[in-house]
Amino acid sequence: MSVRVGRAATVCKFRFTQWFPFENNSFIAVLWNINLILTDGRLEELIENVKTLKCHVVILTESKLDNTIPSNLLSIPWFNGPLRRDRNRHGGGCLVYISQLPTFKQQIKVQSDFYENISVDVRVREKVYSINCYYRPPNADNHETFLYETEQMLDCLSKHTAHTKLIMSDLNFGNIYCKFPVLNPKPLDMSAPELFSSHNFQQLIDIPTFMTTNTVSLIDLVFSDNIDNIQCQGTVSPIADHEGVFVCFYCIRVLEKPSTRNV
């Protein structure tokens, strides 16, 4: 398994057998387009990658599940059962796993009712991270609907209190963010980025995440409204047909000075 860390101009690729890029006191969130989690061997590969990355939040898009599949068939060791937003066995769907170390609470009032969207607050020491999974299918041609629904979601999120708000998403746009190589714009590339930036969200990934023999694109995105304590961000090896994307935050515990009192 390998990871690409840093901005596109200075991207470095490392294998975890050679060097682990994250510090032990980091808070790490990873997104993969899993493209059917029930594919033979896919859950086992996911578990191995999660163990290697030592991550705390795992977000999956295109889970392709329905209510006939119980959550206990989708478990990851040392993680709570997944939060789910299913569509059907043929497409779509999102899963969010939170490790058993932090406390968390799903925020249904922030979620979009139209698109596959999961919002959850995760408390890491004294900070609350608002983690948001958001998925737009590639065949969603009504761009005005997407822009309207996304603005409603962003408005709700702007009123929500959290130290850092994170949107990790496969939105099937984003070529405009790529630094190298220069990619042809995709639909929504001229309108959606401005919508996110107007709500103080900065997109972090600037290297391609989806590559075939004929196409290269950047469609797996990470938005954050607070980049002050980000250690690094980048891509990790694919499990299905998309590379994973991650963001890593510094979470150093500040020890209080010991106090004394006379008894």
Element string (H = helix, E = strand): EEEHEEEEEEHEHEEEEEE
Q: Radius of gyration from the CA trace?
A: 18 Å
Q: Return the structural class.
A: alpha+beta
Q: What's the CATH class, please?
A: Alpha Beta
CATH superfamily: Endonuclease/exonuclease/phosphatase
What's the tally of helices? Answer: 3
**Residues in helices, as a percent range:** 10-25%
The end-to-end span amounts to 57 Å
Q: From the coordinates shown, what is the CATH architecture?
A: 4-Layer Sandwich
Shape: globular
What order do the helices and strands come in, and which of them pair?
Elements: E1 2-5, E2 12-15, E3 26-33, H1 42-53, E4 57-61, E5 83-85, E6 94-98, E7 103-106, E8 116-124, E9 127-135, H2 143-158, E10 164-170, H3 192-198, E11 202-203, E12 210-211, E13 216-217, E14 220-224, E15 230-236, E16 244-250
Parallel strand pairs: 3-4, 9-10
Antiparallel strand pairs: 1-2, 1-15, 3-16, 4-6, 5-6, 7-8, 8-9, 10-14, 11-14, 12-13, 15-16
Q: What does this 3D model show about the protein?
A:
By secondary structure, this protein is an alpha+beta fold. It has one domain: Endonuclease/exonuclease/phosphatase (Deoxyribonuclease I, Chain A, 4-Layer Sandwich), CATH 3.60.10.10. 13% of the residues lie in helices and 32% in strands. It has helices at residues 42-53, 143-158, 192-198; strands spanning 2-5, 12-15, 26-33, 57-61, 83-85, 94-98, 103-106, 116-124, 127-135, 164-170, 202-203, 210-211, 216-217, 220-224, 230-236, 244-250. The longest helix is centred in the middle third of the chain and has 16 residues, at 143-158. The model has no long low-confidence stretch (mean pLDDT 90).
